[in-house]
Amino acid sequence: MIVDAVVSGLALDSDDTLLDLCCGNGALSTLLFSRCRGGLGVDFSEALISIANSYFESPPEQAYILQDVVMFCENPTTPDKFTKILCYGSFPFIEHDRSELLLRLLKDNFANAENVFIGNCPDKEQMSRFYGDQPVERGIENDPASPIGIWRTEKEFVEMAERCGWQAEIHKMPEKYYAAHYRYDVILSR
Fold first, then answer.
1. Alpha-carbon gap, residue 116 to 120, rounded angstroms
2. Are strands 183-189 and 167-171 parallel, antiparallel or unpaired?
3. Is 60 exposed, middle or buried (0-12, 13-18, 19+ CB in 10 A)?
4. What percent of the chain has pLDDT over 70?
5. For the chain, what are the domain ranges?
């Protein structure tokens, strides 16, 4: 379901080159890279990049580098080759200021990237559906170090994207996706 959502949301095709930010161990990246010309995965976890390089690296079509994604986007390697960008499941763990900076950098430094897919974002309006009767720690919705990261309403995300020069469209996963009741995906376009 995730691969189908990303491929559809980005309109990913065989002519595209994908930049996967916060790629983790590369397991999702490699499935998506096989649907296009390939791409580059970037993550700050040495252990996860080591796994990606051990199991999925296949230069030049599939490469993975160890670097903080914001730092990478400030001074990207060959930014013009990327036509689509992905950040799946990790955007909520980037601090507020850095997440806006990242969106601006993507807009300014990746001119050929038509779309950005930011997946699996927790919806602040659905926190009660996630936590149920459990007590919720005050302020946890704004803590990027919490187990879920930063919760944003769909409106908050759209407004943040617009401040950074993007148009944002909210998408939902199919109901059978385990987290569909409290998460959404965002597709950014120029």
1. 13
2. antiparallel
3. exposed
4. 100
5. 2-189
pLDDT of residue 77: 87
Question: Tell me, what DSSP letter sits at residue 46?
Answer: H
Task: Output the six-digit token pair for 124.
Answer: 């602040």
Q: Cα–Cα distance between 18 and 162 in angstroms, integer? A: 23
Q: Which residue has the tokens 């230069």?
A: 59
User: Do residues 16 and 33 lie in contact, with contact meaning Cβ atoms separated by under 8 Å?
Assistant: no
The third-level CATH classification (topology) of the domain covering 2-189 is: Rossmann fold (3.40.50)
CA distance 22 to 41: 7
If you average pLDDT over every residue of the chain, what do you get?
97
Question: Tokens for 30?
Answer: 């490699």
Over residues 139-164, the mean pLDDT reads 98
The dihedral sign for the CA sequence 44, 93, 91, 94: negative
Calculate mean pLDDT across residues 129-158: 96
E-assigned strand segments in 67-137? 84-88, 115-122
Convert the pLDDT of each residue in 36-94 to its tens digit. Answer: 999 999 999 999 999 999 999 999 999 999 999 999 999 998 999 999 999 999 999 99
